[in-house]
C-alpha cells in the first residue's frame, strides 16, 4: 500500500472489534447463488433480482459466471424484484 510505519495507527483487538461491520460488497451485475436453496439472483444497486431458469437460459448463464454465497449473506441483500433479460435485436 506504500505506507510507512509512522503512518500506521496501532489499535487494540477490542478497538478493532468495536468497529461496526458494514454490508458485504458485491460488484454491480454479479450473479449470486444461495448455497442452501440454489436460488440465483443478480445484484444491482445493492439489491438482488431473482433470475428465473428461463431468463438464465435466455442469457446463457453458466455456473462459471455465478458466485455461490452463504444463505445468511444472500438473504441480507434486499430482494427488489425479478431479473429481466435484455432484449436482443435481430435487425441487420
Distance between the termini: 50 Å
- Give the low-pLDDT segments: none
Spatial order of the strands forming the largest sheet: 4-1-2-3-5
Content of β-strand: 15-25%
> Total helix count?
3
Radius of gyration computed on alpha carbons: 19 Å
Please provide the count of β strands: 5
Shape: elongated
Oligomer: single chain
Main beta sheet strand tally, sense and closure: 5 strands, mixed
The pLDDT mean sits at: 93
User: From the helix content, strand content and strand pairing, which structural class follows?
Assistant: alpha/beta
One letter per element, helices H and strands E, the order comes to HEEEHEHE
What does this structure look like?
There is one protein chain. The protein has 92 residues and is an alpha/beta fold. The protein has a domain at 36-78. The protein has three helices and five strands. It has a five-stranded mixed β-sheet. A hairpin with a 2-residue loop joins strand 2 and strand 3 (47-50). It is elongated and about 60 Å long. It starts with 12 loop residues before the first helix and ends in a 10-residue tail after the last strand. The model has no long low-confidence stretch (mean pLDDT 93).
Amino acid at each position: 500500500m506504500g505506507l510507512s510505519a509512522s503512518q500506521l495507527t496501532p489499535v487494540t483487538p477490542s478497538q478493532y472489534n468495536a468497529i461496526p461491520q458494514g454490508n458485504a460488497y458485491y460488484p454491480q451485475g454479479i450473479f449470486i447463488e444461495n448455497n442452501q436453496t440454489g436460488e440465483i439472483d443478480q445484484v444491482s444497486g445493492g439489491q438482488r433480482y431473482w433470475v428465473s431458469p428461463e431468463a438464465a437460459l435466455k442469457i446463457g448463464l453458466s455456473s462459471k459466471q455465478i458466485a455461490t454465497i452463504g444463505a445468511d449473506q444472500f438473504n441480507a441483500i434486499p430482494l427488489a424484484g425479478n431479473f429481466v433479460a435484455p432484449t436482443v435485436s435481430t435487425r441487420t
